[in-house]
Amino acid sequence: MAESDTPALRKLLPDEIHRAVRPGTALLRLQTTHSREGVLDGAWWPRSRDVATELPALIQALTAHLGPIVRVGLDTDAWEGVPTRVVVDDRVVRLESFPVGDDTVLITRGDNDHFALLVVPPDTTPDTARDAMARAVDAGNVTQAAEILVAAIPEPMADPRESA
């Protein structure tokens, strides 16, 4: 196959995507396998820590892929103004406080079907967010959310004057 016949690889999210989308737009990746053997089932990159602004779009996107969402568990200390419930498309979704850390949300579909999503911090750079989201949805991932985020943060460049 000639080089010109090979489709160009595209990055998951364009560099400007986080600045271009309005608050409340869900930037989401989900695993594409049915095995659910990894630690995480997906990743979410909200624009802010305002639950009332960010969560409805996430719930709508998840409902489209997974079916009705009944509960969201999150660390209320990491979010602004967390109510006990939100109404999305005429459906009540309960919000519950779970000590999962600011890097994870737990989604419940039905009675006991749980999904864990990595939460990429709103101020994360596009490249770092792409890397973290890709690791989170890797079917063989056994890394916890906090470890993914720490690993995705690039090491600071060493000052060449220090090695002299």
Walk me through this protein's architecture:
- The chain is α/β, with parallel strands linked by helices.
- The chain is built from 4 helices and 7 strands, in the order αββαβββββαα.
- It has helices at residues 17-20, 51-66, 126-137, 145-152; strands spanning 28-30, 42-44, 69-74, 85-88, 91-97, 104-109, 113-119.
- A 7-stranded mixed sheet has the order 1-2-7-6-3-5-4.
- A hairpin with a 2-residue loop joins strand 4 and strand 5.
- The longest helix has 16 residues, at 51-66.
- The radius of gyration is 18 Å and the shape is globular.
Give average pLDDT, whole number.
77
**Low-confidence runs:** 1-21
Structural class: alpha/beta
First-to-last CA distance:
48 Å
Spatial strand sequence of the major β-sheet: 1-2-7-6-3-5-4
Query: Which strand-content bin applies to the residues?
Result: 15-25%
Helices, strands, pairings?
Layout: H1 17-20, E1 28-30, E2 42-44, H2 51-66, E3 69-74, E4 85-88, E5 91-97, E6 104-109, E7 113-119, H3 126-137, H4 145-152
Parallel strand pairs: 2-7, 3-5
Antiparallel strand pairs: 1-2, 3-6, 4-5, 6-7
Helix pairs in contact: 3-4
Short description:
The protein contains 4 helices and 7 strands, in the order αββαβββββαα. The protein has helices at residues 17-20, 51-66, 126-137, 145-152; strands at 28-30, 42-44, 69-74, 85-88, 91-97, 104-109, 113-119.
